Amino acid sequence: MSELIFKIDEFEPDEIEDLLKQSLTVVRGQLNRGGWADYMWPMYNGLVEQAERKQVGEILSDQPAIEEQIRRELQEKPEATLWLIVEGVARSIPLPGSNREGTAIYKARMCNTYKNYGHREPEEHFVVSHISKQPYERFTSFLTGLERIGVRVKFTVDYEATAKVLVQMAKSAQSPPTTLQRHNKPQITFRPNPHVMNLLGLYKSGVGPEMAEKLVDFYGSLWHIAQMNPEDIAADVPGMGVVSATKLLETIGRTV
Prior knowledge:
Distance between the termini: 72 Å
CATH architecture of the largest domain: 3-Layer(aba) Sandwich
Strand order of the largest sheet: 2-1-3-4-5-9
Shape: elongated
Order of helices and strands: EHEEEHHEEEEHEHHHHHH
Oligomer: single chain
Helix content: 25-40%
CATH class of the largest domain: Alpha Beta
Low-confidence stretches: none
Number of strands: 9
Number of domains: 2
Largest sheet: 6 strands, mixed
Mean pLDDT: 88
C-alpha cells in the first residue's frame, strides 16, 4: 500500500498542520485555488475525500459566500466526497431587549473551580464568546440543506478536535468500512417464478420444486398445464408419469 499523503491548503492554520503531522504525512499546497476544499486525502478505492473547515461564526455571518464556495467545490470536483467540518459550539438564546432569538457561540475556557475541600483547580468550561442576531434555526437549516444535496457535515468544538477528526477520517478511508458489517445482511435479489409458486401451492398435488420448474419450463403457466391430457404431460415432461399427471390435473380441478 502506498504512503498516505494528506494535503492541506496554504491558508489553513499552522496549529492544525502541526497536530496533523504527529500522525500523518502532510503536504501544504494551493488546494482552494485548484478548486479543492481545505483538506484532501485519498481513499482505499482510488477515490478522494475532501473537507472544508468553517467556524460557526463564519457560517452565521456570511452563509451566501459559504454556499457559493461549497457549490463551486461540488461542481469542480464532483468525483470527490465533500465534508463540511463545523468548528465551534452554538445554541439558541434570547436576544437582550427583544422577543427574538439569536445564536450564542461558545468557546472553551480554563476556569478555576472549587473542589476537593475548597481547593481551586483549573477546569475547562464553555463560555459565551459571541452572540449573533441570526436565528439558530437558520444556522441548522443551512446545514440540513447541505446534507440533503450530498455534503456530509461533522461538528468539532475547536481546532484541536478538528485535527483529531481529520486524522481519523483519513486513516479510516484507507480500508473498506466495517461498522455494522455483521448487521448488514445482503438484500435478497432472488424472485421466484410465480407460476412455479402456484404449482407448489396446490394442496396434495404431489409436485415438488424440481418437477414444478420442469412443468413451467415446458408449458409456461398453470393455465396451460390445465389444458393438457395426462398422456400428453407424461410424454412432454421427463419424470412425470400418467398417474402423477392425472393427480395433478385433478388437484387443479380438471375432470380426467
